[in-house]
Amino acid sequence: MKVLHVEQAARMPGVSSSFLASWLQADALACTEVSTSSFLTGAYCIFLPLSACLRLKQPPGTRVVVATLMVLAGTVP
To answer: How buried is 45 (Cβ within 10 angstroms: 0-12 exposed, 13-18 middle, 19+ buried)?
Structure first.
């Protein structure tokens, strides 16, 4: 099985930056402890919709607000 390196992915046409970011995140999470991985994934689920709203300059939709609140409720003990 051949390992895909970052330099190879950058040279491949059609490889999107979101795929590369997801691949790098999955690789990094495989090397961390479970609690750290859980925290980072939860933070990712909260900050991604917020950053999209800021980038698009639009308020979040109802589904995004409900989903973000559900993530927040799941992370608070």
So the answer is: middle
Q: Residue 27 CA to chain centroid, in angstroms?
A: 12
* Domains of the chain by residue range: 16-75
Distance in angstroms (rounded) separating the CA atoms of residues 70 and 64? 10
pLDDT digits (tens, 9 = 90+) for 2-61: 455 555 555 655 556 667 777 777 777 778 888 887 787 788 888 888 888 888 899 989
b vs e for 46-55, b when ≥16 Cβ sit within 10 Å of the residue's Cβ? eeebeeeeee
- CB hemisphere CA count around 53 (13 angstroms): 13
